[in-house]
Design goal:
By secondary structure, this protein is an alpha/beta fold. The protein contains 8 helices and 21 strands. The structure holds zinc ion.
Length: 356
């Protein structure tokens, strides 16, 4: 099978697992094979027929963030917690139009459109998704449930927040989206950054694992101008593509220490005792399912989630964790160090401590 981004036939398997997680945080019995392209270096799922069937099955039950009941995830910004959508708008504000119309593709519960409706009140808003999420409550001109290539209107701005990493034919998809933009229109994209969070490979429906360099190169094949705004959300890559906008230079290739991740999976699977998992987002859910019967429960700082059940186990505050029970902390090193420092009574298993 050829590389999804560059088409090279030189792809080789680097990991194969018998379980996974969906991006709406459901532990899945679907295995997958992760491959790396020998030519462009991109990590990606092997998107064969079985993979595509599993993805169709996954999307037929999809629900954006069921545990949060449609609220956008919180990101810490200074001392005031802000949502991911607010951060994206803030970081990209001066690239975005004030008037005209804006389409949000894969809108989910509409958290980004909600922010846009307050930040850019003169924009006419449109939404698209495969279905209307029950929590979607933004006042839009139109909600499309058809694929983007069936839309006939043109937009001065299109946003795709966490969409492109799900697409098995990104070149064709981007061409279709480009056709929906007005001449001066801008495309705002955000995808997870594999260089800063290797754990994202566990998410089954993330088919391409982008780095800044690979996202930039892909967009450059379809748009004249690509800019990576200076402010970036942790673990994510935000990019703006257009035909007449701003252009920043090609980012340098970053290396992904995949060996460390494989070692971490091995370490976790060999610890034969009850464990907590920190967090309830997809990656944490993956580890909760991965350790099976050894899972005691989830630790989460979000008071909204505490007391609820996840994989049939209770979500509790990290402050209430029982002494002496280890806790899997599946976060990139820097974030893991911050969390360990804040909850120094908990015996965390982090990717930095994975060589025990
Ligand atoms: Zn490639």
């Amino acid at each position: 099978m050829g590389c999804i981004l560059c088409g090279s036939g030189d792809t080789h398997e680097i990991l194969s697992l018998s379980c996974s997680v969906s991006s709406d945080s459901r532990f899945l019995p679907f295995g997958f094979s992760l491959v790396r392209c020998g030519s462009c270096g991109t990590l990606q799922k092997k998107a064969d027929e079985t993979y595509k069937l599993n993805i169709t099955e996954l999307y037929s039950h999809y629900r954006s963030y069921p545990l949060t009941e449609g609220r956008d995830q919180l990101k810490s910004f200074g001392k005031i917690p802000v949502t991911r959508a607010q951060l994206i708008e803030k970081n990209c504000a001066d690239h975005l139009p004030e008037t005209g119309s804006a389409l949000d593709i894969g809108t989910g519960s509409g958290s980004f459109l909600k922010v846009m409706s307050e930040a850019k009140p003169n924009l006419k808003l449109f939404a698209q998704d495969i279905g209307r999420d029950p929590d979607f409550s933004v006042d839009v001109k139109k909600f499309y449930t058809c694929p983007p290539d069936k839309i006939s209107e043109r937009f001065s701005m299109i946003s795709m927040i966490h969409v492109l990493e799900h697409i098995t034919e990104p070149h064709e998809f981007l061409e279709n989206v480009k056709g929906l933009l007005t001449e001066n229109g801008v495309l705002l994209i955000q995808v997870p950054d594999i260089s800063s969070n290797i754990f994202d490979t566990a998410v089954l429906d993330h088919v391409v694992h982008f780095s800044k360099a690979s996202l930039y190169s892909l967009l450059k094949e379809h748009f004249k101008c690509v800019a990576l705004p200076e402010g970036q959300v942790a673990k994510e890559i935000t990019a703006i593509a257009s035909m007449h906008g701003r252009d920043t230079k090609q980012p340098e290739k970053e290396t992904v220490d995949f060996e460390k991740y494989i070692e971490y999976l091995k370490t976790v699977s060999e610890i034969n005792e009850p464990m907590y998992v920190f967090g309830t987002a997809p990656v944490s859910t993956f580890f909760g399912g991965y350790i099976g019967d050894r899972l005691v429960g989830f630790l989460d700082e979000d008071t909204f989630k505490q007391g609820k059940l996840h994989l049939d186990k209770k979500i509790i505050s990290p402050l209430d964790a029982e002494n002496g029970i280890k806790c899997i902390l599946p976060f990139p090193q820097e974030m893991a160090s911050n969390i360990s420092a804040r909850f120094n009574k908990i015996d965390f298993i982090t990717i930095c401590s994975s060589t025990l």
